[in-house]
Amino acid sequence: MTVTTPATRNMITDYYDVIASAVRRCGAVPGDAPGTPGFAPGFDLPELTPAVREFYAAATVSWSPLGHYAGHDLTMLDLTANPGTRTTKTFASMVIVARAVEHIRRTGERLCIVTPTSGNKGVALRDSVARAYAAGLVTPEQLSIVVLAPAATRHKFRHDALAADPATRAVNPLLRYTGADPEGVKALGRAFVDEYAATAYDKHGVTLWYTLDLRNYLVADAARAAFEADVSPATGSRWHAHAVSSAFGLLGYNLGRDVLEAAGDADPADRPGFLLVQHLGTPDMVLSLRHGSFERDHCPAYTLDESRGVWTQDADLRFPAVTDDPAEVLDPTFYTHRPVTSPAMNALVRRHGGDGIVVSRRECVRRYPVARQWLADAGLTLPEDPARLREWSILMALTGVCNAVDRGLVPAGHEIVVHGTGSYCDDFRIAEADAEVSTLADVVAAVLDQR
């Protein structure tokens, strides 16, 4: 049964035991993270002192009814409350930084987190590092972060506490990648750690930690399932809808379900189905789910309607009927091609039910007035003009849900829980990069030569 009033919890402190169990179930062991040779970050978290609770204070999550749509109850799982990020990346980032703090306390090592990102992960990790400084858990001399992001996501980065202070800015550089392929940040970041971690340690006394590892995100997202079980236990007639690039959030949710079911706190028969929502720029997970292949040959053919200046198709219900561009990049955060997570997500949908759908900007804008009202009722504010949006995750998810219902893809009577993973507009000052990079030499010059 769905709760009828909003319910709010702290995602980390209220569900620490589930996160700890997820870590054990994940099989993660110290010493297997890319970084300085011999580096062993571990998964231990600091004791919940008042300072640590202050650090975690922004990790809140809420469950809010949105209303009804065509015979389906809609609920928002809002993961965007942290004002420093407005995305779900808050939770995993706080856990990563907390682990870093505990590692520093245990070993005395100076630690530098290195993360390539499409945008939101980097914003959240910077926010978490700044919160750790503010709570007195660690100093800039002990913990720092290097963020490497594509130029296309410049508008995602806010001028934050790390950028505002010259001392913290100097040791926490934001690097803008100017290469042609946004996904190139991953290879470049990994190459920097693989080739220069030993140098950073030997010459500067700094241990590097490359955090782009699925398990670093799964363990925090496991708490989503515990929160659901706490406020509104799932039934067999529920789907979870999520705008996805690699579906880390849903895989983390399912890890949480594994933990609950193993402990006898949830019934395997009641695990929900899943609706994957993507955009035309990277529909890879939907293609894999529906066709077992990432090949774009499986996308429907669009025809230009010259009288309207739009592209249309009616051959595939799971793709937009109308778009301004058949290869449209609705939000550059969703940039992953051929995600390695697709087989696992496909297996979950086959077992528990679900589907996938791709949305266009035109479809999102058409749904915008209704979505804006629904979200206002749930305590989330969208700007009057959708052109001001800088993060489209929630609007994509809601549009995907409505389209899927309208096209008969959702079983009759199913409740739909929308994972509210990100939403923000142009109400902040954009952070300027500390350096523009395109090669490994550029990164070395921006990071190591400045120490």
TrEMBL record:
Q: Which InterPro entries match?
A: DUF6002, TrpB-like_PALP_sf
Pfam families noted in UniProt: DUF6002 (PF19465)
- Return the protein name: Uncharacterized protein
Species of origin reads: Micromonospora aurantiaca
